[in-house]
Amino acid sequence: MSAASEPPGLRADAARNRRLLLDAAATVFAEHGTQASIAQIAQQAGVAKGTVFRHFPTKDDLVAAIICDQLDLLAAVGTRLSEAADPTAALFEFMTTAVDLQSRDRSLCQASGEAFADNRAVQAAADRLTEIAEVLTARAQAQQGIRDDVTGQDVILLLRGIYQAAAPLCDHQPTLWRRYLALVFEGLRSPATQPLPLPAPDLFSSPRTQAGRHPAP
């Protein structure tokens, strides 16, 4: 887990146990979906169920922690790529990594939608990811590698759409998402032949977001 998503003041042994539980839960959820039981997760981790509940009072808390872990992992990838020599290639690598992660853990991709939209920790992690997407997008635009009417928020929304386009066929064609990712890359490249018909969405001021949004801790 990244330092950003780890609870403050956690002792070293407690942090190790938390990491063990998150890794075990991620493995179980990837195989059985988020409907898997706490007992299965405890067995995978080699601990008692009570140990799981001491760190995560509910299963939703555990799922939210894993979502934060994934979002912060992607943000760390984006931060590294923000110093790459080729900004456009860096943006495309970031997008490829994000969709690849979704394709390898479909259950958590589904869980990270509406059910956790109001979770403060998930919101904060999503904000961090959006911020780095804005940086990567701006750098690619400064290089004139992508069209200038795209924002980092557009990129974040496209990432989910790319996976969802291929999801119905992923059991038989697990890498089909690469086709749709390539189509998106072509649409992003500069120069644009036509302007986009509407402005980019403001994810932080929409009624749906504001209704459930809390300030980041």
Automatic annotation (TrEMBL):
<protein>
    <submittedName>
        <fullName>DNA-binding transcriptional regulator, AcrR family</fullName>
    </submittedName>
</protein>
<keyword id="KW-0804">Transcription</keyword>
<feature type="DNA-binding region" description="H-T-H motif">
    <location>
        <begin position="37"/>
        <end position="56"/>
    </location>
</feature>
<dbReference type="Pfam" id="PF00440">
    <property type="entry name" value="TetR_N"/>
</dbReference>
<feature type="region of interest" description="Disordered">
    <location>
        <begin position="196"/>
        <end position="217"/>
    </location>
</feature>
<dbReference type="GO" id="GO:0003700">
    <property type="term" value="F:DNA-binding transcription factor activity"/>
</dbReference>
<dbReference type="InterPro" id="IPR050109">
    <property type="entry name" value="HTH-type_TetR-like_transc_reg"/>
</dbReference>
<dbReference type="GO" id="GO:0000976">
    <property type="term" value="F:transcription cis-regulatory region binding"/>
</dbReference>
<keyword id="KW-0238">DNA-binding</keyword>
<feature type="domain" description="HTH tetR-type">
    <location>
        <begin position="15"/>
        <end position="74"/>
    </location>
</feature>
<dbReference type="InterPro" id="IPR049445">
    <property type="entry name" value="TetR_SbtR-like_C"/>
</dbReference>
<dbReference type="InterPro" id="IPR009057">
    <property type="entry name" value="Homeodomain-like_sf"/>
</dbReference>
<dbReference type="InterPro" id="IPR036271">
    <property type="entry name" value="Tet_transcr_reg_TetR-rel_C_sf"/>
</dbReference>
<keyword id="KW-0805">Transcription regulation</keyword>
<dbReference type="InterPro" id="IPR001647">
    <property type="entry name" value="HTH_TetR"/>
</dbReference>
<dbReference type="Pfam" id="PF21597">
    <property type="entry name" value="TetR_C_43"/>
</dbReference>
